[in-house]
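Re: the 127-residue chain
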Amino acid sequence: MSLASECPIIPFTNGAAALTLGQIVKVSAGTTVVTAAATDAALGVVTEDCDAGGDISVAVAGSGAIVYVEVSASGIAIGDNLAPVAAGKCNKSTTAAHKAFAVALEPSTAAGQLIKAVLSPGYIVLA
C-alpha cells in the first residue's frame, strides 16, 4: 500500500511497540518511536506494518516522497501543513514553533484515516 517506493526508504530498529503504515516516527535511544508532539522532529513515516523489536521501513522526512500518513482528526484540507501529534499521527498546523514535515494531498474526514501527503524538503518551522 505504500507509495514511497521511488524514494529513500531506510531500515531502522523498531522499539518496544508494533508500528503500522502511516505512523510518524522519531529516533530515541537508537530506535524508532512514534512522535508525541507537534514540536517533535520527525525522522519520517512508516511504510509498512512492523512488529515490536524488528526492523522498520521509514520514508525519510525531507525526501519529497509521497506517502500515506495517519491523521488524528478530520478537517484537513489539500495543501495543509502537517505536524506530528500524539501516537504517531499528524494534524494540520499553523502554530508557531510546530515542525511541519509534510503537506496534505488529500482531505481527511475522520480520525485514524490514512491520507496521501508529500514529505516536505526539510522541516517547515511555522511562524
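The chain has a mean pLDDT of 88.
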